[in-house]
Amino acid sequence: MTRIGGHTGRQEERPGARRDELGRRGFVRGAAGAVATGALLAGAGAAPAVGVPAEGRRIRVVAEERVDERLLRLTVDSPALGGTEAVELLVPTDWDRRGPDAGWPTLYLLPGGDGEPTIWTEQHRVQDLDEFRQVLVVMTAMPLFGFHTDWWNGGAGGPPAVETFHVHELIPLLERAYGAGRRRAVGGDSQGGYGALGYAARHPGLFRAVASYSGPLHPLAHPEVWLGGARLFGIDGTAIWGDPVAQRANWRAHDPYFLADRLGGTPVYISAGDGTMGMLDDPDREDDPVIPGTEEVAESFPDNVVSLTEGVIGRESRATAERLIAAGTPVTAHFYPGTHTGTYGWRELRLSMPLLLGALLG
How far, in Å, CA of 331 to CA of 210, rounded? Predict the structure, then answer.
């Protein structure tokens, strides 16, 4: 059943601090950041395997730390990224006993634009959810403002190839050596929400369910916002997909809005705020400063929009949800008053769990 609108029932508020809107876990959280069939989702046939990059070099684990009973932290050396990156695993009960061939249902959680996997344990508290004792939860990282993309780099390609890192290096590694199975789902916060929907569309059948929490799902609709966000952190945003006019075809090829017909029967959860003050916002928060180059976009929103980032994301998420529905994809969407803070992601992860776990365990 397709649903657009708000959830009913009591809304839970996560205790704890909110992120600074323009900190490394603030604006960057969202300023950056294929045909699955019903038969596949019903369990007819195995999910597709993914392999190593064409050059044959393999990702390798260079450090492994057991943080606590269930949390394992890996440092991996990635040819696609041209360096090392972190990965955190929240392992299920009996993970140690069952070994690397267990084939656990696996939930991949993608980070926002800061690239840090720790958002899921520090802010979204995935370790507190008993339901995740039945699945392997993989919390990935990426370079700052990586946008879950193999960068264009003026047409030369090369590092950072974030999509290759996640899809062609990391998933095979975890399925080979850490008990991950081919019943996969994916969710993401901010840029990670973009990555979740984009990966699912660009790699048909790879994931059984997808969730985006405040993801920029139609970047070509507001390229000045995402290019301006990159500039805030000293990054040339055109290195990601190129110029939005000259390399429009590449932008379209990486824009979930234009890939909507590739999701097929994959269940999708999409949530986003409208940029106004919501029930989980700090009443003393300040308005987002206007990013240079985005003045015209800012003027298109009402005066009560205090978070331009989330206002833009809300527009993009609604447009993409409607396009997915028109293409026949089962969509559950939750649009609400709210800004671009991690507190909403904490709530939306929990509201999306029936959809994600239904695909993994059903």
Answer: 10
Phi and psi at residue 333, to the nearest 5°: -125, 145
Tell me the CA end-to-end span of the chain in Å, nearest whole number.
Answer: 17
Name the region of 172 (left: φ>0; alpha: ψ -120 to 50; beta: rest). alpha
User: In one letter, which amino acid is 88?
Assistant: E
- Quickly tell me which residue has 């000293």 as its tokens: 234
Phi, psi of 154 (to 5 degrees): 70, 20
Torsion of CA 200, 317, 268, 343, to 10 degrees: 100
Residue 1: CA count within 13 A, CB half-sphere: 3
Cis amide prior to 53 (ω within 30 degrees): no
**272 forms bridges with which residues in the sheet?**
335
- The CA–CA distances, whole Å, from 114 to 27, 28, 110, 190, 331 equal 9, 6, 11, 10, 27
Report residue 176: phi and psi, to 5°: -85, -35
Contact yes or no for 289/320 (Cβ under 8 A): no
Compute the residue count for the chain: 362
Domains of the chain: 3-361 (3.40.50.1820)
Amino acid at 357: L
Comparing CA positions, the residue from 94, 114, 31, 95 lying closest to residue 308 is: 31
| pTM confidence score | 0.87
Q: Crossing angle for the helix pair 308-326 and 223-232, nearest 10 degrees?
A: 140
Tell me the residue type at 96. D
Please name the amino acid found at residue 194: Y
pLDDT in tens, 256-306: 999 999 999 999 999 999 999 999 999 988 888 888 899 999 999 999 999
Per residue in 310-330, pLDDT (tens digit) is 999 999 999 999 999 999 999
